[in-house]
Design a protein that fits this description.
mainly alpha
Length: 296
């Protein structure tokens, strides 16, 4: 992701008209200011608190009855470890509880990667000649974040539904919440690996890596517009990362080692200078891992 700079003299009337009427803007018109502003600090703080609270809930076990640390095991082939540990009972997840577990995990893992877009949204409003006051800017930026996380809530509903199918089938351990089947593990690893190398993955990733281009192309005015922009960006992000999140069915839904590794991979893909190459390298490793799982 390239650095941001602000042209001297600030935005002209055409930028302000584009902001209010939802027309595409040149990328230079949405470059952030060179100096930080109080609302930038407040937004960043609010997002940081949200992420920390989400990670705290995950660490506590997200309603599993024990901490995530107790459910964490370092293993390349979790299906070989068995389905339980002495004295452990099946995870007490209801349908709403499973959705909450997945959604909070997604908030913890995905919000950091969306933070540059949320901050840039507020800064773009400030650059307009008719920009609203600080509090409306912050509110609209948070609405964008809300739209983004609403898409991940929809993903969480689908993931919880899949979890409810895998557990009774015996493919997913009811105690450790990891795969009990070499075939299931290999299939998920291979699908994720192939997707990492696919053109669709690269297209989705390109949308996630350039917040300036996204705002320039998809700006919508007003509060509803901010929320809809968040939904649009969230849809691209789900398209980019959903197969990676499915890997949690292999390593364990509450396995901190797998959660942390996926979080770092997603951040590297979105923010590192050579993020696409990182993702493609991960895809090759996942395919090798899938083959090794079948013969392990």
């Amino acid at each position: 992701m390239t650095g941001w700079s602000e042209p001297e003299g600030g935005p002209g009337p055409s930028t302000a008209r584009a902001l209010h009427h939802g027309r595409p803007m040149p990328a230079s018109a949405v470059a952030p200011a060179r100096t930080s502003r109080p609302e930038t600090f407040l937004l960043a703080t609010a997002l940081a608190i949200l992420v920390l609270l989400a990670w705290g809930y995950v660490w506590s076990g997200a309603g599993a009855g024990m901490s995530a640390l107790e459910l964490t095991t370092l293993a390349l082939f979790p299906h070989r470890l068995g389905s339980s540990m002495p004295g452990m009972d099946a995870m007490p997840f209801s349908w709403p509880g499973a959705i909450a577990m997945w959604w909070v995990m997604m908030i913890a893992m995905m919000t950091p990667g969306a933070t540059p877009l949320v901050l840039l949204h507020a800064r773009t409003w400030r650059r307009a000649q008719a920009a609203p006051a600080a509090l409306p800017r912050i509110a609209r930026a948070l609405l964008l974040a809300g739209g983004y996380l609403a898409v991940w809530l929809a993903f969480s509903v689908g993931a919880a539904a899949l979890q409810s199918l895998l557990e009774p089938s015996g493919l997913l351990s009811p105690m450790m919440l990891w795969s009990r089947s070499a075939s299931l593990s290999a299939a998920v690893l291979a699908c994720a690996g192939l997707y990492q190398l696919s053109p669709l993955k690269q297209r989705c990733l390109s949308k996630c890596r350039s917040p300036i281009a996204f705002i320039a192309q998809h700006w919508q005015p007003g509060s509803l517009g901010a929320f809809m922009m968040g939904i649009r960006h969230g849809a691209w992000c789900v398209g980019c990362c959903a197969p990676l999140m499915a890997l949690l069915f292999v390593g364990g839904l509450m396995n901190l080692a797998w959660i942390a590794a996926l979080t770092l991979l997603v951040l590297a893909e979105k923010l590192a200078p050579h993020g696409p190459w990182v993702g493609q390298g991960a895809g090759v490793l996942l395919l090798i891992w899938a083959g090794a799982t079948l013969v392990a």
